[in-house]
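Support request from a user on the community tier.

User writes: "When I paste my structure tokens into the form, the page sometimes reloads and wipes my input. The last time it worked, I copied everything first. Here is what I submitted, just in case something in the input itself triggers the reload:"
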């Protein structure tokens, strides 16, 4: 054909369109052909190793498997899947942490800070455990929230900042209680007490009312001193707040726009009492290792005591 001359002898498929439009039948480039065969081989091998084809109500599971430890503590093999992979990886991570937990349990609280390697484990593992279990209430970094959850990152403690006190708090939980005074005291008396409470931490207050409030504070009618102490610095055995330290958990004094708002915040606490601060107990929910880890972590957050 004339076309063959034009195409210099290259074979055509024999199809002709529009009288002279032809399709050349060139062989595929060698590299392309081999790459194509290679992908087929790859796919076959891949199907054999990993889960692939559906088969009735099941599927081809592949030869590769993942060995992990089941809840009974026995080694178990499962076909390759991301869930088993995650299980295995987290078990490996835990196994790597175990020597540190052992060291943590063997080291007395007072000596942990002298072991820099152990301390850096406490800071990193403690941060994760805190985010998982505690930050939902105490907020990231233990910053707390006025009216709800105490700040754990300051060095002010309701229940004490020693290792023993923090461990007891986490293990058994806490629930602060203060009785309501709306019925027992007159509005004038509550106003006087609130002025006294504000004056204790240097907030503006009415001098005369504060003086009357002070007398009431130490009287047996109000008996505030019984829980908050003769010096109003609180009692950590029952979590009664220090009223002289400018740190507020329930009465939002720092958030008060003006003197009247601050006064109202304190009066609300005296009138209504407190019974809402519930710190859950973690014994049984966290392992003794995790409780010790968090005790050191929280102690460190607050600068320790
Ligand atoms: C459901 C919310 C909640 C969770 C979760 C929670 N806490 Fe608390 N926590 C509180 C409350 C509320 C208080 C204050 C109790 C009170 O005032 O009587 C508190 C008090 C504390 C205190 C005492 C602070 C002080 O000033 O003495 C420590 C320490 C503490 N929590 C640590 C933790 C740790 C560690 C975790 C995680 C394992 C945790 N908390 C989880 C609500 C929570
Ligand atoms: C039975 C013990 C008890 C008595 C009595 C008591 N309180 Fe309290 N008070 C507490 C406790 C415990 C807290 C902290 C509660 C918590 O954290 O859950 C508290 C908290 C407060 C707060 C909030 C502090 C803050 O950080 O926001 C104020 C204000 C206060 N008391 C004032 C008084 C005054 C005034 C009286 C006397 C009229 C009084 N309390 C009597 C136990 C007591």
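"...and here is what came back when it finally went through:"
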């Amino acid at each position: 054909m004339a076309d063959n001359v034009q195409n210099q002898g290259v074979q055509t498929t024999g199809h002709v369109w529009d009288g002279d439009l032809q399709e050349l039948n060139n062989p595929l480039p060698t590299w392309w052909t081999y790459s194509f065969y290679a992908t087929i081989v790859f796919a076959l091998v891949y199907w054999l190793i990993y889960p692939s084809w559906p088969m009735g109500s099941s599927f081809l599971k592949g030869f590769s498997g993942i060995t992990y430890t089941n809840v009974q503590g026995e080694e178990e093999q499962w076909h390759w899947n991301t869930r088993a992979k995650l299980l295995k990886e987290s078990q490996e991570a835990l196994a790597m942490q175990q020597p540190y937990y052992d060291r943590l349990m063997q080291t007395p609280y007072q000596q942990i800070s002298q072991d820099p390697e152990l301390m850096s484990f406490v800071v990193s593992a403690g941060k994760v455990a805190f985010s998982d279990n505690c930050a939902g209430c105490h907020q990231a970094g233990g910053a707390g929230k006025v009216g709800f959850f105490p700040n754990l990152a300051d060095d002010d403690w309701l229940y004490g900042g020693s290792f023993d006190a923090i461990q007891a708090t986490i293990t058994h939980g806490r629930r602060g209680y203060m009785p309501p005074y709306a019925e027992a005291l007159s509005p004038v008396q509550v106003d006087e007490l609130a002025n006294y409470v504000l004056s204790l931490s240097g907030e503006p207050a009415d001098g005369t009312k504060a003086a009357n409030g002070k007398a009431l504070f130490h009287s047996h009618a109000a008996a505030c001193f019984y829980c908050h102490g003769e010096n109003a610095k609180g009692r950590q055995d029952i979590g009664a707040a220090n009223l002289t330290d400018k740190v507020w958990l329930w009465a939002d004094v720092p958030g008060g726009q003006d003197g009247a708002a601050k006064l109202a915040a304190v009066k609300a606490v005296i009138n209504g009492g407190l019974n809402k601060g519930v710190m859950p107990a973690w014994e049984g929910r966290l392992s003794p290792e995790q409780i010790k880890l968090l005790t050191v972590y929280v102690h460190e957050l607050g600068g320790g005591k």
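Agent notes: The reload is a front-end session timeout and is unrelated to the input. Residues 135 and 142 are 7 Å apart (CA to CA). The chain has three domains: 2-55, 107-174+279-301, 177-276. Escalated to web team.
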